[in-house]
Design brief:
single chain, mainly beta, Elongation Factor Tu (Ef-tu), domain 3, conserved putative lor/sdh protein from methanococcus maripaludis s2 fold, 4-stranded antiparallel β-sheet, 1 helix
């Protein structure tokens, strides 16, 4: 009986050693935690793998991306932050797919405004089961807001940056100037978005002089087949 027990112990010891070797061999295979594609391979057959434990520089073996659903991060201007809520649909356009729109859904927001850019960071998920869209691509996102925020655009030359704040000069019905306080939205280069302060019925002076003041008399010139032009000390509408 003692000889049988000794041999059983030897078998168990050998089996434990086999199991240890199997675990070591299993490290030769790397399993991804999700279905995806390998976007980068930083090693090759025969290379020594250094985990960094011995003081060397650790580096990843592969980079894997799950592309069946893409996360798109966009910055929403603060003026639209209250309307950008989870559940909204969005249309995405890509330069490499002219004329096509891909639909996504806003799933979460950062719930905080970036103090530098004054924008809200939001995430839009896009179904990419066919694998047409590539990670890291640039896209334009058009959010379909539930609340309509009335805005209008005017030439940037119509903006007056005064000590008391941003103003827009308009021509009143009695041909005198009035400086209206406005709130600036997005800047499109030659044109700027105005979110508050204008109704759309004003006669805006597009290039007023910096010295223009409230009540200043304007000289209105009517041009053929064109809108009336209001001038104030050389300014034009």
């Amino acid at each position: 009986m003692s000889d049988l027990a000794s041999k059983n112990t030897a078998v168990k010891s050998a089996q434990a050693n086999v199991d240890r070797l199997k675990q070591l061999v299993s490290f030769e295979k790397v399993y991804a935690p999700f279905d995806g594609v390998v976007t980068a391979r930083n090693t090759d057959i025969g290379q020594l793998i250094d985990s960094g434990a011995s003081g060397g520089q650790a580096r990843s073996l592969f980079q894997v991306a799950a592309i069946n659903k893409l996360r798109v991060f966009i910055s929403v201007p603060q003026i639209y932050s209250q309307a950008a809520t989870p559940g909204l649909t969005a249309d995405l356009t890509f330069a490499e797919f002219p004329g096509r729109r891909f639909q996504g859904k806003l799933v979460r927001t950062s719930r905080s405004i970036d103090p530098m850019a004054r924008t809200l960071n939001v995430e839009v998920d896009v179904d990419n089961a066919k694998g047409e869209l590539l990670p890291g691509a640039y896209t334009e996102v058009h959010l379909k807001l539930k609340e309509g925020i009335p805005t209008m655009t005017i030439p940037v030359s119509a903006l007056l940056f005064r000590e008391e704040g941003l103003r827009v000069a308009v021509a009143k019905s009695d041909n005198t100037a009035e400086l209206l306080p406005v709130t600036l939205g997005r800047d499109f280069g030659d044109y700027a978005e105005i979110t508050t302060g204008l109704t759309g019925q004003e006669r805006i002076i597009s290039n007023p002089p910096d010295s223009i003041i409230d009540g200043e008399r304007l000289h209105i010139q009517t041009q053929r087949q064109q809108a009336p032009v209001a001038t104030g000390r050389g300014g034009e509408k």
